[in-house]
Amino acid sequence: MVRILIVTALVLLGLGALFLALRPEPTATNDEPREQVYDIEIEDDAMSPVEVGVGQGDQVTLRFTSDAPVEVHLHGYDLEEEVEPGEETELSFEAELSGQFEIENHETEAALGALLVEPR
Predict the structure, then answer these.
(1) pLDDT given for residue 17 in this prediction
(2) What pLDDT, on a 0 to 100 scale, did the predictor assign at position 84?
(3) DSSP state of 84
(4) Distance between CA atoms of 6 and 10, rounded to whole angstroms?
(5) Using CA atoms, how far apart are residues 85 and 88, in angstroms rounded to an integer?
(6) Which residues in the chain land under pLDDT 50?
């Protein structure tokens, strides 16, 4: 009986040591704004990735490339930039507003994708 108690105690101690040794490191909290940079390709009037997700308060840089000339318009933030084929164009802003915002081809009004800003 004593032998079973000793073995059980040793197993529990071993499991506790494994838990402490293998637990994940704490990550940054969602309350801290971060710098977010996304490379976005526009091909055949479609954006890849289709949706970009950031947190409210983040400093966001969207780096666009395109296979054809396009004027990118980010609704809600009222930002526009011309993107020429073979050239990288940056759109930088602070994500102050939360919600889902359409990114469109301003000339044709075709939806290219979306920016999703999660509240903090």
Answers:
(1) 64
(2) 97
(3) -
(4) 6
(5) 8
(6) none
Q: Domain spanning 35-118: which superfamily?
A: Cupredoxins -  blue copper proteins (2.60.40.420)
Q: Which residues pair with 82 in a beta bridge?
A: 71
The two three-digit tokens of residue 105, written as one number? 């081809």
pLDDT value for 100: 98
- The CB density around residue 53, as the number of other CB atoms within 10 Å, is 14
Question: Alpha helices of 1-120 — where are they, by DSSP H?
Answer: 2-22
- The whole-number pLDDT of residue 30 equals 55
- CA-CA distance, 119 to 56, in Å (whole number)? 5
Dihedral sign from CA coordinates of 103, 73, 120, 48:
positive
Q: Which residue has the tokens 């395109």?
A: 66
d(CA 22, CA 19): 5
Q: Which two tokens stand for residue 97?
A: 């507003």
Separation CA 26–CA 93 (nearest Å): 29
The residue count of the chain comes to 120
